[in-house]
Amino acid sequence: MTVDEAAQPEITTPHVAPPQSVVERPMSDLTGAVRRSRWRPARDDGMLGLGLLAGPANVIMQLARPGVGYGVAESRVESGRIDRHPIKRARTTFTYLAVSTNGTAQQKLAFRRAVNGAHAQVYSTEESPVKYHAFDKNLQLWVGACLYKGVVDVHRLFAGDLDERAADRLFEQGRALATMLQVDDEMWPADREAFDRYWQEQLDEVHIDDTVREFLYPIATSRLRGLTLPGPLQRRAEALALLITTGFLPQRFRDEMRLPWDAAQQRRFDRLMGVLRFVNTVSPRFLREFPFNVLLKDLDWRMRTGRPLV
Q1: Domain ER-bound oxygenase mpaB/mpaB'/Rubber oxygenase catalytic, which positions (predicted)?
Q2: Using CA atoms, how far apart are residues 173 and 167, in angstroms rounded to an integer?
Q3: Do 165 and 57 touch, CB atoms closer than 8 A?
Q4: Which residues of the chain have pLDDT under 70?
Q5: HEC letters along the chain
Q6: Cα 115–chain centre separation
Q7: CB atoms < 10 A from the CB of 192, how many?
Q8: How far apart are CA 308 and CA 109, in angstroms?
């Protein structure tokens, strides 16, 4: 399926230069992420709300490892299935990002227990074509690495190019994202250059077969179960969502998903990201960081009232 060019809104902005594509750049490359502009936050932000746009692409990267892909596609945890309860699963994932990087020790412990309770039910059976277990440290490390890459890509696009301080801060956030559960601290790459080597090595383990690809395609188009717009609007919404998802994917993952990409699509993606970057930089910090800045409060409320955390 290709993105219908006619379905894409014509978006222009005279104020902000379109950002360059960042998804292929290594973590150790700190220069040339995006062009600087006068519309720039006074400091680098925490988790950016616009990062939600990269969520479907990040899910695809995580599930591109067969053990993760089949673990999610075959999951027996009904309440956590992204294909059936995407909003709830998104809340859980975003809360995980917020807790692992900015949560208190009590919040981390409570959320870790809740996630482990769900993960204990995720393991392969004799019928599974791939052997997996949600407590596999190597698979969890891969998921953490994908989350870290997603955070860096989002910051490069929407907050600006990284200096050493910002890059170091995000690298430590990546460590927290990976080690919140069973991943040992020493498993996390020693520095950004080591992460780049790890990432390149792990690309050899990436493979999306027909079963996982069929599972992932509705996620790529942000198709919500039970929510359908009138025909033309649905097609336009899915085409736009697919453009955004594909734009956030490195080419290796586009190929695995069989999602075409060309210079015209890159230009449309860049124009859209340029508009969103301008909106982001002139917005109050509270809006820039929403919903991550309220998820910890929601977690505290769930802990006090005994509601499920995941």
Answers
A1: 49-277
A2: 10
A3: no
A4: 1-20, 31-46, 78-85, 224-229
A5: CCCCHHHCCCCCCCCCCCCCCCCCCCCCCCCCCCCCCCCCCCCCCCCCHHHHHHHHHHHHHHHCCHHHHHHHHCCCCHHHCCCCCHHHHHHHHHHHHHHHHHCCHHHHHHHHHHHHHHHCCCECCCCCCCCCECCCHHHHHHHHHHHHHHHHHHHHHHCCCCCHHHHHHHHHHHHHHHHCCCCCHHHCCCCHHHHHHHHHHHHHHCCCCHHHHHHHHHHHCCCCCCCCCCHHHHHHHHHHHHHHHHHHCCHHHHHHHCCCCCHHHHHHHHHHHHHHHHHHHHCCHHHHHCCHHHHHHHHHHHHHHCCCCC
A6: 18
A7: 19
A8: 14
Report the predicted TM-score, pTM, of the whole model to 2 decimal places: 0.84
pLDDT computed for residue 133 by the predictor: 93
Give buried/exposed letters for 201-230 (b at 16+ CB in 10 A, else e). Answer: ebeeebebeeebbebbbbbbbbbeeeeeee
Are the C-beta atoms of residues 168 and 30 closer than 8 Å to each other?
no
Structure tokens at 190: 């020693």
Q: What is the pLDDT of residues 143-195, one digit of tens each?
A: 999 999 999 999 998 888 888 988 999 999 999 999 998 999 999 999 999 99
List the one residue out of 129, 132, 134 whose CA is nearest residue 210.
129
Q: How high is the pLDDT of residue 36?
A: 46
* Sign of the dihedral defined by the CA atoms of residues 206, 210, 212, 214, in that order: positive
